[in-house]
User: What shape does this take?
Amino acid sequence: MNMERAKTTKPAVKSTSKPYNAYLDVLKGFAIAMVVLGHSIQTSLPNGSYDDNILFRIIYSFHMPLFMFLSGAAAAYSLRPMNWKFLQRKFNMLVIPFFAWYVVSYFLGDAYKLTSFPTYIHKFIVSPDNGLWFLWILFLNFVALAVIKKLSGRIGLISYPLVWLAIFAVPTGQYGIGLVKWHLPFFAVGYLIFLYREALARYRRPVLYLCAISFPLLVASWHRLYLPSVVTDLNVHLSAHHLATINIGDIITLNTYQLASMVYLYLVPFAGIGFFYWLFQVRPNKYVYSFFGFLGIYTLDIYVSQMYFFRFAFGPTWLAITTGFIFGLVGSLALGMFVLRRVPILSTIFLGGRAKVVVPRIKPLS
Assistant: This one.
């Protein structure tokens, strides 16, 4: 697939529209399908037991980092200046639905029976992961990117790690800051890779091959709640060799075990991102591409309302997972396509102003 910006027929007119990259929609469609499947597993298995489900562990090792990576990649194709108007537009597209669906969940769930509305909203603001946290964190990532772009004109690419480290130094994880600390690198790396895609093209194949080999090995020991023994045992060896900490000058002291743990925690999802990027290239199938490309256009529709359809799942465990996945995917897709996108006020409130779309033809990546 041609990854360059589409040429305009009128060079004199400055366009602010985003050149279309259908392959990103294919990967987004795959990612949202994994989100729905992962949530279906969570709702179908007893509390806690889903963490030991191998399919759940594989999905959760990469799916939301993949979404952040793809969001950054899509931003690299934007021709809009990252100014105040840009952030206002992102606020309308992301934050308004973020709040709107949380209010809906107060009345459609049992929250209104258990807590007052002000308490419910306060809990939501302090801990956005009680709602559709991805939308809020994606907006904050765009804010961070706008700051980075402002600084990069003066200090260059060093602005990317500097802004991340500044956020990482904030002594709280509340209000979504903790989630930004974790997800900003995926968003920023996706943005940089696709922004400099031509210069990095020669490294693409060896990096993807490395991911294709390493991800199956790494994910075999990955768990959402704890680190594998190969990482935890490292702490003992580092302490035994007096390498538990490293001093940089008289100010900075690095905990080598924490640094190694962080490297592992980022290595697994980044390897997963590369693995599935590679997988969709080496096994092209027009029907698979068309299906995921179609889903990729409606990722927000599916993400915001999928949970309301899992209640219709039925049968024993694996049947419940399967039917929950189908109802969650089809139900949310139908709600978005045939209701929310067709009524302007509903589209504005619940989908950030997204309207009916013409589905393009998806061609396999060549």
Observations:
- The radius of gyration is 21 Å.
